[in-house]
Amino acid sequence: MKKKRYIAGALVLVQMLLGLGMGNVWAKTAESEDEPKQLYAQSAVLMDADNGRILFGKEAEVIRPNASTTKILTCILALESEAGERVICVSRNAASQPKVRLGMKEGEKFYLRDLLYSLMLESHNDSAVAIAEAVEGTVEKFADRMNQKAREIGCENTHFITPNGLDASDKDGIHGTTAADLAAIMRYCITQSPEKERFLEITQTREYTFGDVEGKRKFFCRNHNAFLNMMDGALSGKTGFTNDAGYCYVGALREKNRTLIVTLLACGWPNHKSYKWSDTRKLMEYGLLAYAPYYIWKDPGKMNLLAENAVNEESPWKRTKKVKVAVREDSGFQMLLKEGEQVTVKKRIEENVKAPVTQGQAVGEMEYFLNGEKIASYQIEACESVKKRSFFWCLKCVMEWLCF
């Protein structure tokens, strides 16, 4: 704990120094740190990818069609299925998908790993269906898996019907999601999935060439995510467009020790293809200027609790024993905070417990709050084990005392 206090003190000093520097930036760009007020997108979200906190939202919970941004979930599910080396035989259903399409023919064979580049770089609709059928057998079963995965991620307002994001509807509603849910899916893809590095590798690839398994045809894919060339730290992204959805986008940026995600739904219709890039830059710059990373941790000080009916080796006649308790060594975290935001900490610890007590047993909690909402919590744990005082232990003590 002593070592940890030194580390915490050093971090506080660093924060003070950073705060002075950031204060100058704020002073020079006072207008830039204000929340964006004029966005083209009907729905938009700026998210801190490290913890999922929404830093800015515009109609963030409104369900809308989301076009080919759907394909980020298709891609990550395919990667997690470990089907990369699988050979796909193209079905009539896959080959008949509308533009934008690779142009595969029924009966042709491809490696699934190659079609992931077709999916994410060129947004080919036929590749999406071929991938879905290879992973789950049918588009319908793959859509079920997509919706199950979305729920696991925490998306409560997402309903996907197709793996490519084409406009569709069924008895449960339209194919669509919210800006908040789409950001959560992107967060999973780039920070939480066991295949996150492979996902980033694919979505960062600028050009890719491949052929069918038999080598009869060659295909060339170019990445259409212009954001990769717009800002330093641009990490990943996926565009989308349908008649119902309009232009959509989900993108991520990593700058030093912070990662931001932007999602845009209904961001204009033809001829306003560039609106999504304007909104993306505006939101990313707002996040970088208005929010700074801070290490959040509070030293709880020395803590003890009283164990009742406990074995006390030092004073056998006492029926209680003080037990040292502490928070885990990793009980700190980083988050982005805006100027004026403060994290409050509450310490909750039991006054006493009944023996036995085991080392590591939870006896309380350190809770961190921002704007009244709990953002993190860490257990306060016993640092030692304490046995329960029993008749036989007392008898043993008496016998030892008499023999002495």
Automatic annotation (TrEMBL):
Secretion signal span: 1-27
- Read off the InterPro entries from this record: Beta-lactam/transpept-like, Peniciliin-bd_prot_C_sf, Peptidase_S11, Peptidase_S11_C, Peptidase_S11_C_sf, Peptidase_S11_N
Please report the stretch or stretches of sequence annotated as the Peptidase S11 D-Ala-D-Ala carboxypeptidase A C-terminal domain: 302-388
What EC number is given for this enzyme?
3.4.16.4
Q: Which GO terms describe its biological process?
A: cell wall organization; peptidoglycan biosynthetic process; proteolysis; regulation of cell shape
Q: Which family does it belong to?
A: Belongs to the peptidase S11 family.
What is this protein's name? serine-type D-Ala-D-Ala carboxypeptidase
Keywords associated with the record: Carboxypeptidase, Cell shape, Cell wall biogenesis/degradation, Hydrolase, Peptidoglycan synthesis, Protease, Signal
A UniProt-annotated Pfam family = PBP5_C
What SMART domains does the entry give? PBP5_C (SM00936)
Q: Origin organism of this chain?
A: Dorea phocaeensis
